[in-house]
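Entry 14. Ran structure prediction on the chain below.
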Amino acid sequence: MLKGGGYDVEIVDVNQLEKGASLEAMRDAIIGRTPAIVGFSTMCDRYLTTLKLAGACKAANPDLKIVLGGPHATITDQATLEAFPFIDVIARGRI
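Output, structure tokens:
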């Protein structure tokens, strides 16, 4: 949908980056693309790592908008927004 709307979209599979990569290396792989918005899909087993990476990206670029989606973000939407102020938006799915 975003591409159809004229937005430049790139998907970075951090699971592939993560093999042996430090948090800083993963952050740099994302931030190096100079995005305005970064969205993370969240699963329960990777949620804390996702939050750490999202926080590192926001710290590197405070103007960056961070969006979380996926099952875990949907279930913990309000609690996540309250606990982690670097998260700008939670895109909820159906529960």
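Helices lie at 14-18, 23-31, 47-60, 71-75, 77-83. Will compare against last week's run tomorrow.
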